[in-house]
Write a structure and sequence with these properties.
Blueprint (H helix, E strand, L loop, with lengths): L6 H18 L3 E2 L2 E7 L5 E7 L5 E2 L8 H12 L1 H19 L2 H16 L3 H6 L1 H20 L5 H14 L4 H17 L5 H10 L8 H28 L11 H12 L8 H20 L3 E5 L2 E5 L1 H19 L1 H23 L3 H18 L4 H34 L3 H10 L6 H18 L3 H18 L4 H14 L8 H9 L4 H23 L1 H4 L6
Length: about 525
């Protein structure tokens, strides 16, 4: 069997390939200007966009020794994601040391097995229901508020759960990461893609929602169906999983934890911590009596923080009566709740989320009666375990710097868009969609790509009698699907790195699924050419 190259080897080879391109592809640039855009909440912001007919060729800037400096630049550019990965990895290592997740998984599986005594669940399969519900939830997160980087933290939870249910690490990644990115591609209210693209295209923010809901339903159904098919295939024949041998890491980890019987106890320090956190929750409830959640441009004022404070006081007391393990799981649950509230209501990003998970990890260690030195050592052990996943994010970002500094990204963009002018509606839409899909392989940032392409694409749409809304849909699908395979996506590399899945193995598994989604995406766009949908 041919040995699969290391992920670092693959990424560095792509950096070298990008450098070679800068020697042969003509260098060119668009002229960009700063414009004011209306946000979903009615406020205005500025964004850099491309001027019409402004492309011009410039002197070549072939990249040589920059293949090494690009690695440094990649680390600097993705420093927030890298630090986020390290902090989450360290926090979860502290939490895992308490065996709280193991207790939770065991309790969860016991409840699941009890449902199998009912004929209805026997026919459908309890595991199938669990996978479907989790994927629907994360798909909604991706579709509504653009969940992406946040999925890195959930991989650590769902991979062990998938292994314990008889599946593999790929199923665990699919339950959170793939589900969120299928929702991201078929988004209904994603402000980072739809909101920006529609603003640049001079369309009402989040218009055309009705047909986007249909697209989300179709794409999410296909995603769930594919994952269920693969999961059942692996469960019946584990050797068909490309991760069968590599998942020994997770299986051995689970066996080691099972060999050490878990002692259920509640130390006094956990009760003290509960009292302190309850007081903090009450203070937050007083300071933030209402939270304005912005969904689809509509603000809804909710008393969500006071509600969560009350639930924490009740559930924290009940969980401590059982065991400190359930209290730590309670901390994890409320961490996730505050993550969602922070993202939707307070514009949180990786800095705030990192701090939230770090606080959770420290509180977990304190509740488990760990000393300050022990917590620090556990945190460092977690950072060490996840270091390779963090490093590869910076390496992959180096590809973008080579292409950008070599001044060939704009040339590629210009060359592809010129082919749109002389084709019919269906063919033009196909070329436009193909262009957005291919461009995403080297520019995975949806907001940056929207600022670069939408000023041009919107005008092309007018020339070829294609709705600007359809153009936004082409951008949305093109931006979303290939995020799940491109090595320039830091989130993908981080997620599969955390799950211990080699990049080559992931590509071998995912390419048929992604190709299917790309084809379905094009078929979903075709009706907009012939049927008048609301907003199109």
């Amino acid at each position: 069997m041919k040995k699969i190259p290391h992920t670092f080897t693959i990424v560095f080879a792509l950096i070298l390939l990008a450098a070679v391109c800068t020697w042969f592809v003509p260098a060119g640039e668009f002229v960009r200007e700063t414009v004011s855009l209306q946000n979903a909440d009615g406020s205005t912001s500025t964004r850099e966009v491309v001027q019409n007919n402004s492309f011009h060729y410039v002197d070549k800037s072939p990249q040589t020794w920059q293949v090494f400096s690009s690695l440094f630049n990649g680390f600097v550019d993705k420093a927030d994601i890298i630090i986020f990965i390290l902090m989450v990895g360290g926090a979860f290592w502290i939490l895992n040391n308490s065996h709280a997740i193991d207790v939770g998984v065991i309790a969860f599986l016991r409840k699941v097995l009890m449902l199998n005594k009912y004929r209805f669940f026997q026919k459908i399969g309890v595991e199938n229901i669990i996978i479907s519900l989790i994927m629907i939830m994360f798909s909604l997160f991706g579709a509504i508020f653009g969940m992406s980087e946040e999925t890195i933290a959930f991989v650590i939870i769902f991979v062990p759960l998938a292994i314990s249910m008889g599946y593999d690490s790929i199923v665990g990644v699919c339950m959170c990461y793939v589900a969120a990115h299928v929702g991201f591609a078929g988004a209904m209210l994603n402000p980072f893609t739809i909101g920006i693209a529609q603003g640049i295209a001079d369309l009402p923010i989040f218009s055309g929602l009705e047909y986007r809901i249909v697209c989300w339903l179709v794409l999410t159904s296909i995603g769930i169906s594919f994952v269920l098919w693969y999961a059942n295939r692996v469960k019946h024949n584990p050797e068909k999983s490309p991760m069968h041998k590599l998942d020994n890491y997770w299986r051995q980890r689970a066996e080691e934890q099972q060999q050490n019987p878990i002692e259920y106890y509640t130390p006094k320090v956990a009760w003290i911590l509960y009292g302190i956190l309850s007081a903090v929750m009450c203070l937050c409830a007083v300071m933030m009596p209402q939270t304005r959640i912005n969904i689809g441009g509509d603000e809804v004022a909710l008393i969500i923080v006071p509600i969560l404070a009350g639930l924490f006081i009740i559930l924290g007391f009940v969980s401590l009566r059982k065991s400190v393990h359930f209290f730590i799981l309670n901390l994890l649950l409320f961490t996730i709740c505050f993550l969602v509230i922070g993202v939707l209501g307070y514009d949180w990003y990786v800095m705030e989320i990192s701090a939230l998970f770090l606080a959770m990890g420290i509180c977990s260690g304190v509740a488990d009666k760990q000393s300050a030195d022990d917590i620090a050592k556990l945190f460092l052990a977690g950072c060490k375990d996840i270091l390779s996943a963090a490093l590869v994010v910076g390496l992959a970002s180096g590809i973008i710097f080579i292409l950008r500094d070599g001044k060939v990204i704009d040339t590629i963009l210009y060359g592809l868009t010129r082919s749109l002018a002389s084709t019919g509606e269906v063919a033009s839409l196909g070329v436009m969609y193909t262009f957005q899909t291919l461009l995403n392989l080297i520019m995975p940032s949806g907001s940056a790509k929207a600022a670069l392409t939408m000023p041009i694409m919107a005008q092309f749409a007018d020339l070829i009698n294609v709705s600007r809304q359809t153009t936004v849909l082409a951008f949305q699908f093109g931006d979303g699907f290939t995020n799940m395979i491109t090595p320039t996506s830091g989130v993908l590399i981080a997620c599969i790195g955390v799950a211990k899945i080699p990049y080559a193995t992931w590509i071998k598994w995912a390419w048929k699924f992604i190709l299917t989604l790309i084809v379905i995406g094009f078929l979903l766009m075709l009706p907009t050419l012939f049927i008048s949908f609301p907003g199109f």
